[in-house]
């Protein structure tokens, strides 16, 4: 049997051309692996058939929607992970899942090499190859688009010369990546930072002004950091994301326009739509504010940033990421309760919180009758708390 190459297959031009190209250049058989992450669009059976028609000896379709939601989106919710304070890691958290299935397919088919369709300017090449190295360090990697400077024109010419069954007549001005967690859009006229996004950029979200007269109030229930019900109806994590995509998306929630610091050292303008992600993270943060002790919450916020950076930088399977996962999981033991929020005009605004694990004590917080906070203790606390600063200030004044 010939050597085999396992290819991460999207069904698009580049990875379709890669099947035939890899076979011709290396003499290897190609096994295409397509992953359903809830991206919608074309039917996965059509994508599988296209891979076979382009010359793959086998084409595998994996329905990983629940796996993606439970093992990748959920940890992102629990980490409140927003890269640069905004981006909920739409593409970043999907890559390690794809890598996992590529490695499993490589082992099953006795392949020595895996391949992806990433360019040399993006983050995904790092996420794929570092992830593969962490799970299967002996596998080789081929990246035709990056390593052989493919352009769209070259790919089209190759497809035509080799009679590949690929329709390339319609060209989108954008580069788009999407899954159930969100949608990422770049390139085209968006590369001019002064150009505002047009209506055709968006698909997951409506214009925030469209439903402005009809706000949507929702109650999200969490158990130990896991969204388990919406408006009292039990849901899986996947169902929670899907429903909030619909409801928050209808209100224009989750639109992001940011200049992002890529791992490769360049700045890139990115448009994101992540209505479900932003709504769920907002609700989760609000519940943690009620149920997580002050010092733990403070430290967790520092860890959240590092966790997000590791995920963004392709280090999902790293020892540090695994250790931080254990910390995150421990912090979720008391994150149980309900959050009520209003989805309206592009915003998800929390207006109600309740939890049996709440650390909020009404009698300590109130300024009215029933106040149990002993204010007489505060004077000494304030004096001691500021003592070191006061001593230093006195010294500095004496030296002037």
TrEMBL record:
Cellular location(s): Cytoplasm
Entry's Gene Ontology cellular component terms: cytoplasm
EC annotation from Swiss-Prot or TrEMBL: 6.3.4.5
Arginosuccinate synthase C-terminal domain boundaries: 174-391
Pathway this chain belongs to: Amino-acid biosynthesis; L-arginine biosynthesis; L-arginine from L-ornithine and carbamoyl phosphate: step 2/3
MF GO annotations: argininosuccinate synthase activity; ATP binding
Residues annotated for L-aspartate binding in this entry: 119, 123-124
Keyword terms of this UniProt record: Amino-acid biosynthesis, Arginine biosynthesis, ATP-binding, Cytoplasm, Ligase, Nucleotide-binding
Gene Ontology BP, a term: argininosuccinate metabolic process
Binding site for ATP: 8-16, 117
Pfam family of the protein (one): Arginosuc_synth
Boundaries of every Arginosuccinate synthase-like N-terminal domain copy: 4-165
SUPFAM superfamilies the record matches: Adenine nucleotide alpha hydrolases-like, Argininosuccinate synthetase, C-terminal domain
Positions contributing to L-citrulline binding: 87, 123, 127, 175, 260, 272
PROSITE patterns: ARGININOSUCCIN_SYN_1, ARGININOSUCCIN_SYN_2
Reactions it catalyzes: L-citrulline + L-aspartate + ATP = 2-(N(omega)-L-arginino)succinate + AMP + diphosphate + H(+)
Assembly, per entry: Homotetramer.
Family according to the record: Belongs to the argininosuccinate synthase family. Type 1 subfamily.
Protein's UniProt name: Argininosuccinate synthase
Organism, scientific name: Nocardia alba
């Amino acid at each position: 049997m010939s050597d085999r190459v396992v290819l991460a297959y999207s069904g698009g031009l580049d990875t379709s051309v890669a099947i035939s190209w890899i076979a011709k250049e290396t003499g290897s058989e190609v096994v295409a692996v397509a992953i359903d992450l809830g991206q919608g669009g074309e039917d996965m059976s059509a994508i599988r058939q296209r891979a076979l028609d382009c010359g793959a000896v086998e084409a595998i379709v994996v329905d990983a929607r629940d796996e993606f939601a439970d093992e990748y989106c959920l940890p992102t919710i629990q980490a409140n992970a927003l890269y640069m304070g905004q981006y909920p890691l739409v593409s970043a958290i999907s890559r390690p899942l794809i890598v996992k299935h590529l490695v499993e397919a490589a082992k099953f088919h006795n392949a020595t090499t895996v391949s992806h369709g990433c360019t040399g300017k993006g983050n995904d090449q790092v996420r794929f190859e570092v992830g593969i190295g962490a799970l299967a360090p002996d596998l080789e990697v081929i990246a035709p688009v990056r390593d052989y400077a493919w352009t769209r024109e070259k790919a089209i010419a190759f497809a035509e010369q080799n009679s590949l069954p690929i329709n390339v007549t319609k060209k989108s001005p954008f580069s788009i990546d999407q899954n159930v967690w969100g949608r990422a859009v770049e390139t085209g006229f968006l590369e001019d930072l002064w150009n505002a996004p047009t209506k055709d950029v968006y698909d997951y979200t409506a214009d925030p002004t469209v439903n402005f007269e009809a706000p949507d109030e929702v109650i999200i229930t969490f158990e130990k950091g896991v969204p388990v019900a919406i408006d009292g109806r039990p849901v899986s994590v996947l169902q929670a994301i899907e429903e909030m995509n619909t409801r928050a998306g209808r209100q224009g929630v989750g639109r992001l326009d940011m200049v992002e610091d890529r791992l490769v050292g360049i700045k890139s303008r990115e448009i994101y739509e992540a209505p479900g992600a932003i709504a769920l993270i907002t609700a989760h943060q609000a519940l943690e504010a009620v149920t997580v002790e002050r010092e733990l919450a403070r430290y967790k916020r520092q860890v959240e940033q590092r966790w997000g950076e590791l995920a963004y930088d392709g280090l999902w399977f790293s020892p540090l990421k695994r250790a931080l996962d254990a910390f995150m999981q421990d912090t979720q033991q008391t994150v149980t309760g309900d959050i009520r929020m209003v989805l309206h005009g592009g915003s998800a605004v929390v207006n109600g919180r309740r939890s049996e694990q709440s650390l909020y004590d009404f009698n300590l917080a109130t300024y009215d009758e029933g106040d149990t906070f002993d204010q007489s203790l505060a004077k000494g606390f304030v004096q001691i708390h500021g003592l070191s600063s006061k001593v230093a200030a006195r010294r500095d004044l004496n030296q002037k």
